[in-house]
Amino acid sequence: MKKQMIFLVLLFVQAVLYAQPRFDSSVFKPAKPQTTAPVQVVYSAKDKDLEFSDAIHATFFLFEDFDWKQISLSMQKNATGLWTVAVPVKPTTAFIAVKFYQGEADHPDAIDNNQDRGYAIALVDGKGNSVEGAYLGEAAFQVPTIAGGGIFSYYSSQPPALPAAYLKGLAEKEFALSGNRYLRYFQPFMNLQKLALEGAFPAYAKKLINDELKQKDISDQNLNQLYSFASVRLQDRALTQLIEQRVNTDFPTGATARFIAYSNTMGSSPNKAEVIASYENFLQRFPVQQWRQHPNGQGFIYYAVYRGLGSAYFDSKQLDKFAKLYDDIDFRTGNELMRWNIMRAYMFKMVGKDSLYQVSEAILPKLIARKGDNSYQEDFDRQTQADSNVVKNLDDRLFTHISLLNDLKKYQEARKYFLLLSEDGKYNNAELNEINLQVLDGLGDDKQILPLLEMSARYNAMTPRMFDKLKAIYLKGHDGDEAAYQTYLAGLKSKEEKAAIQAYVDHNWVNHPMPDFRLETAEGLFITPEDWKDKIVVVDFWATWCRPCIMAFPGMQLLVDKYAQDKHVAIYMLGTMQTGNYKDKSVNYVRGEGFRFNLLHDSVNPKTNEQDLVFKQLVPLFGDSSIPRKIIVKNGRVRYCSGGYSGSPSKLMDELSLAIEILKNEK
């Protein structure tokens, strides 16, 4: 009996302790700070991590209007050695927390947040009454998931859970304080109630929403909150339908009705006719022009609807309807529709080129006309970023259209669109530069060919054919002077481009042991480390399924040709991570495309039966399993490593050439 009494006393003491907040409010002055004046903070760093700091700052987390806001202030040290600062507050500031630190706010050298328990206090108004949000703020500070926002960054680790009884008390106090205005802070309030009521919460939430629906003057905005909560959080279909009925009765063309109608569209249906009908019905009921007269945060709905409808039209070959959408959509939506449908269809030959030309030609002028509509503005922090994104995307869409026109030998039209590219877009893409060369050849415009080649060389975006053309033009006008041509070619590259290549190479030096290997050649012979003795060896890991690997082949061919006569340099294309008859697939593809490579096949791992034995041993060096991947080996060690492909054959050649020459000149 005595032990049982002791146990009950301990439980009582523990419950009392849990009923108290974890945080320390003693750094705030006065003990009950008011919203009518700046709140004073007095901090002693003695015996704390910041004790010997000569500059202490404070980050304040203010719970205002039921949301967290954050500011940082520098503190002053007074004559008694205490650090002080005053934080401005508003009449709606209900709760304040503070974290002290040394260094930069984003990357502090040291912090003091009371060992994750926190320094915090609730505020009162000029009459000494609690401010609406005070109790919700107290809960949300100690349980960040209640109100989210920047309060997560206050802690070094996830705070421990609080007892339901304590949270229930805070919820009851907040409800008594804020009354029927709880819809102003509905989501955090319901988050608090869910933690406080635990299993009893669904019934409580359902009753609360039903009581609210009985009100005659409930707003569309509040109905939207109730609908979202009932459909997503409670997943109560009957309650959701009840809210839908109220919405469609009171606000049939409002924002909530629009969101409900969008939620009920059939975008996930495999039946294209069903998808199209649901999206068309939505747009008939909620025209985008109507929304643009009173825009709100629902622009994402029209972006999704037009994307889904456009793709459904395109996939079902209703290309006229697809093109007609461009009468209504903004640049952002139109760009995505063209990227996903036109570019994809062109790359994978999903639509005949004549048909694809008709629709691409119909929509591109409309897309160009809307490039200044600022539809990307919300996706970026700065206007300059949004503008740059528009330029890049328009260049990409023009690239696809110009490629299509070139294939159809519509050279005059292709040249017209080429002139609409940005300055970088005109010369920064080697593949597009070659297409433009073909266009100029097709037009017989010889005067424009040399300027194109010289600008492409300046941007270091050249293909093998472009080098051949440039060399032929130069040698014809300079009595076949090969040495002078090399000097001329080197002089075309900008200093900025040369510096960028040097910086890239400098960044990719490594020093890693090359694993032992026995690799088969295309001829059925075998290569071992002994064959690479006293050589600088470039290895390109690739696969037939890897499009960037294949796109990099022209650059590797340039490198192979450049070092064809150098007995101290060897270059191998090592096929890896392939399936089936990978040997024949690799050899047939390379030879069929006319590339002159020394081919190797990665060995099969006996443990996994996968063709990746050498590559997987180097993954710790690479950091991932992506290809293409180039390495340069010297004296049994991997000395250089780079991944991916920039899109420029000449840039790839220059990168690897520079690394080779540095290794050749190494003492």
Keywords:
five-stranded antiparallel beta sheet; 28 helices; signal; alpha+beta; Serine Threonine Protein Phosphatase 5, Tetratricopeptide repeat; Immunoglobulin-like; AhpC/TSA; TlpA family protein disulfide reductase; disordered N terminus; single chain; 4 domains; Thioredoxin_domain; 667 residues
Write the layout of secondary structure elements.
Layout: H1 2-18, E1 28-29, E2 39-43, E3 57-64, E4 67-74, E5 76-77, E6 83-87, E7 93-103, E8 108-112, E9 119-122, H2 134-142, H3 164-178, H4 186-197, H5 201-213, H6 220-234, H7 237-250, H8 255-263, H9 272-285, H10 288-293, H11 299-315, H12 319-324, H13 331-347, H14 353-369, H15 383-407, H16 411-418, H17 423-427, H18 430-443, H19 449-458, H20 464-477, H21 482-492, H22 495-507, E10 509-513, E11 519-521, E12 526-527, E13 536-542, H23 547-551, H24 553-562, E14 569-575, H25 582-592, E15 599-601, H26 613-617, H27 619-622, E16 629-634, E17 637-643, H28 649-664
Parallel strand pairs: 13-14, 14-15
Antiparallel strand pairs: 1-2, 2-6, 3-4, 3-7, 5-6, 7-8, 7-9, 10-17, 11-12, 11-15, 13-16, 16-17
Protein name: TlpA family protein disulfide reductase
GO molecular function: antioxidant activity; oxidoreductase activity
Signal peptide: 1-19
Report on the architecture of this protein.
This protein is of the alpha+beta class. The protein folds into 4 domains: 23-160, Immunoglobulin-like (Sandwich); 197-365; 383-492, Serine Threonine Protein Phosphatase 5, Tetratricopeptide repeat, CATH 1.25.40; 502-664, Glutaredoxin, CATH 3.40.30.10. It is built from 28 helices and 17 strands. The strands form 3 sheets. An 8-stranded mixed beta sheet has the order 10-17-16-13-14-15-11-12. Strands 3, 4, 7, 8 and 9 form a 5-stranded antiparallel beta sheet that branches. The chain has a 4-stranded antiparallel beta sheet with strand order 1-2-6-5, with no helix packed on it. Helix 6 runs antiparallel to helix 7, helix 9 runs antiparallel to helix 11 (299-315) and helix 18 packs antiparallel against helix 19 (449-458). The longest helix is centred in the middle third of the chain and has 25 residues, at 383-407. The radius of gyration is 34 Å and the shape is globular.
